[in-house]
Amino acid sequence: MTIQIAPTQLFHAAVHKMLLSTVGGGIKVYDGNPFGTMTYPFLALHDLGGAAPTGPPMTGDGADVARMYQLDAVGRKVAEAQELSDRARVRMVQSDDAGGFLYSVTVAGWRCAYRGTDLFLGLSAEGRAPKQVLVDRVRYLFRWTPA
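The structure assignment produced for this chain is given below.
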């Protein structure tokens, strides 16, 4: 009997790499909680984990793996945070004309079969003037299946 272990760290690294290579415009994409001197706006990607999905696998014989990611778009102005959040959302879930995803996320031996917006947490102000920042948080669900 062969048991395949899902490489969840590789899934996260692939999503981070996709964002780094496609967001552009000098926007920084941090893996987790940023610290130190920040240049605004920026994105922070958080892997929130995930439970195994119910039901049969989306493809193949192996078990699917669900991963939840939270993407924080941080800016000094409302428009800055919201525009960056919209830009990132396109990269996370936009489909192409062939039914695939416009921006690919690849992990050897696995295929990201589903990517969708799970929850809009909305815009919130954090901190106090003059260091206040605005954060637009969105959670995404990705379902990975053995290739």
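Interim note for the steering committee: Residues 121 and 137 are 5 Å apart (CA to CA). The radius of gyration is 16 Å.
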